Amino acid sequence: MQRTQVEIRPTDTDDEERVRAFLLGLSLHTQTHRFFAGLTRPSASMLRALLARDDRRDALVAVLGDQVIGHAMAYRDGVDVEIAVVVTDEWQNVGVGSQLVRRLLRRVTGAEWVAMDVMGDNRKVLAMVRRAWPHAVMTVDSGSVQVRAELTFAE
User: Fold this and answer.
1) At residue 127, what are phi and psi to the nearest 5 degrees?
2) CA distances from 113 to 25, 89, 105, 134 (A)
3) What CATH number has the domain bearing residue 69?
4) Does some domain include residue 83?
5) How far lies 85's CA from each of 50, 69, 80, 82, 97, in Å?
6) What are phi and psi for residue 84, nearest 5 degrees?
7) Is the whole model's pTM more than 0.85, yes or no?
């Protein structure tokens, strides 16, 4: 799989059905790592939240042709930005998630800190966090790890 085939772009309201199909195509393992639960049918309100973009929220999709293969979103609250990312099982471990995070953080203005909740057994994401933000503070709470790291221009 070549990363150059993947386009990363802001979400659009026309993406609703593509994002729905993407979510339903994720394995239960991947769904649980991203949403802390499996999804049987994503609700309309959930899809709207995943596509929302305004002065506090941003969302990106990684697409291959007409198929969504990754999604990342950010919510800015003052100097903090909370992010979440998920990549389809077939495209994990080839850099799509990292590309989504880097592009998303470049688009966030005014944020000084990045935060995310990660399932405690999600070793891949925790390893990515350690590489990207070696000084991140990680706090374990009820099986998840709350990550908080200072943003620098290196991201």
Assistant:
1) -65, -40
2) 32, 29, 10, 14
3) 3.40.630.30
4) yes
5) 11, 11, 17, 11, 7
6) -150, 145
7) yes
